[in-house]
Amino acid sequence: MLAGRSKFFIGGLLVLAAVVYLIITSTQANAEYFMTVDELHAEGQSAAGKSLRLSGAVVGETIQYNPDTLTLTFEVAHVPGDNAEIEAQGGLAQVLHDAVVDPARTRLTVSYTGAKPDLLQNEAQAIMTGHLGEDGIFYADELLLKCPTKYEEAVPEQVNGN
What is the pLDDT of residues 101-130, one digit of tens each? Predict the structure, then answer.
């Protein structure tokens, strides 16, 4: 009777170990690392091929779109990843502006295939999911854009009820 219980206990431990192993390997394989342009630049080629989420300020003069192939390329400049630091520097709109006009900021070329988003413009914040290629280009699978200056003027009118 004791031998039957020990077999059941050992079998249960093996099943539990297998489940823990699958959870750990699945989590590591699907992990996305959120990075700034400076952090990705510092990682260099060791970041190539990893699934990443990247944030940066769109440099408007670099936007190129081919409507035939739906290929979009542009550069993003480094913006801080810490919200407290962004607020200390004057808010998101100011940080995005400073990033784009400063030629000394780290920049990265982004390639995206798909329809050109309406909010893609100079000084927009781009949040992208994708991977860094061996060629140093960030290949975005998803592209989200925030344009804080577009909505700044409408806020006071909404508050006043106009």
Answer: 998 889 999 999 999 998 899 999 999 999
Task: Report the alpha-carbon distance of residue 82 to residue 133 in Å, rounded.
Answer: 26
What's 117's DSSP letter? P
b/e burial code for range 107-135 (CB count within 10 A of at least 16 → b): bbbbbbeeeeeeebebbbbbbbebbbeee
Write the CA distances from 46 to 27, 49, 66, 149, integer angstroms.
20, 8, 31, 36
Q: Provide the domain limits for residue 4.
A: 1-31
Residues 18 and 51 in one domain: no
139: β partners: 111, 131
Fill in the DSSP letter of residue 103.
T
